[in-house]
Design goal:
Blueprint (H helix, E strand, L loop, with lengths): L1 H31 L1 H18 L8 H39 L11 H61 L4 H9 L6 H7 L5
Keywords: Coiled coil
């Protein structure tokens, strides 16, 4: 009888262990699947929320007790955050103290920058001055060329005028040509003009 009882208790214990192992494997399987795990967590939270009585349904004493628990929980949470922040700051300060400073290449000083700016300005002024001088020189050259051309034109005009005078002296005008020249400056009807011209043979 004693052996039978012992065997049944052992079997029961084995069944319990097997059930635990099965549940553990099922939980592990859920954990390995992120979507299922998130769904299970959401269901768990919903079950806990429903199982918890609402504060309005509690007695005044229990309400005060619950509010006190909330305050203590919030206080502990703030303390943990504060401690974590201090710990982070301490780590950062410690790392800064043991880390050698990075040697940066010295950049140009304000004086050097000003000097460089002034040099660039001077260079710009010098180029502008050079361009102006070159333009003035070019204008002067063109003016001289125009003067020279005017002189040449006047010279050739005089030569042509003298040549015409010489031609007229050497080649006296015909009577008709003389009449034409005389009537050039006057407005005379053509019927009257015909009277003064000699007939052509």
């Amino acid at each position: 009888m004693g052996k039978t009882k012992e065997n049944s208790s052992q079997k029961l214990e084995k069944r319990r262990e097997a059930k635990k192992m099965s549940m553990r494997r099922a939980r592990q399987k859920i954990r390995n699947d992120p979507i299922r795990y998130a769904e299970e967590k959401a269901k768990d939270r919903e079950r806990k929320r429903k199982s918890r009585p609402h504060i309005q349904d509690l007695s005044e004493r229990n309400q005060r007790k619950l509010r006190k628990e909330w305050k203590e929980r919030s206080k502990r949470y703030r303390q943990r955050k504060k401690a974590a922040k201090k710990d982070e700051e301490y780590k950062n300060n410690f790392l800064e103290s043991i880390t050698p400073p990075i040697l940066e290449e010295p950049g140009p000083s304000v004086k050097e920058i000003k000097k460089k700016t002034l040099t660039q300005q001077e260079r710009g002024k010098r180029i502008s001055r050079k361009n102006r001088d070159r333009m003035r020189k070019r204008v002067k050259e063109l003016e001289n060329l125009v003067t020279s051309l005017k002189r040449s034109v006047n010279k050739y005009k005089k030569q042509v005028s003298r040549a015409n005078q010489s031609h007229l002296t050497n080649n006296p005008q015909s009577p008709n040509a003389k009449v034409k020249n005389m009537l050039k400056k006057h407005s005379v009807p053509s019927t009257i003009k015909k009277k003064y011209f000699l007939p052509k043979f």
